[in-house]
Design a protein that fits this description.
This protein is of the alpha/beta class. The chain is 41% helix and 19% strand. A five-stranded parallel β-sheet has the order 3-2-1-4-5, with helices on both faces. Strand 4 (84-89), helix 4 and strand 5 form a beta-alpha-beta unit.
Length: 160
């Protein structure tokens, strides 16, 4: 079984993330979508809230497992027997950051490949940060996120 992990902060999960997951499922038999702790990021949603939102958003996708880990992504990948780590790229700035991370992961374990998937053109501007910024100003983000996330953002930002 070809297993991959797709890790991130997912604060919150967006349609851009889901697009990458669906496309990864065309390549791999199973995809673990994992919330990893990033001490550099301050999150709007707690880990439990993000996990619940991801489970709801991904419930109809077969061969997807949702998890949380404090480990390094490469260590988690090794633990679950993944052969690859999937990363989505939107633009040049993503490539620079992601390539540095890929080189670090390659240093830690040469057996685990990093697979970059380019974001579809229609999703290039979608990021969790942008979605939160728009939602905080009461803009409609429903076309950019799963319904459960839209509802959670409205609740966080005091919209009815």
């Amino acid at each position: 079984m070809r297993r991959a992990i797709y890790g991130g902060t997912f604060d919150p999960i967006t349609d851009g993330h889901i697009d990458i997951i669906k496309r990864a499922l065309k390549i791999f038999d199973e995809v673990y979508v994992v919330i990893f702790h990033n001490p550099a990021k301050h999150t709007l949603f707690s880990v439990d809230e993000r996990l619940d939102l991801m489970k709801e958003a991904l419930k109809d996708l077969d061969h997807v497992k949702v998890d949380v880990s404090e480990e390094l992504a490469v260590e988690y990948a090794r633990k679950v027997g993944a052969c690859a780590m999937v990363r989505g790229l939107r633009a040049t700035q993503d490539y620079h950051y992601e390539s540095m991370m890929a080189y670090c992961n390659q240093y830690l374990d040469r057996e685990i490949e990093v697979v970059f998937l380019m974001t579809q053109l229609s999703h290039t501007f979608i990021s969790s940060s942008a979605v939160k910024e728009m939602a905080s100003h009461h803009s409609d983000v429903s076309p950019l996120v799963p319904k459960c996330v839209d509802e959670a953002l409205k609740k966080k930002y005091g919209q009815s």
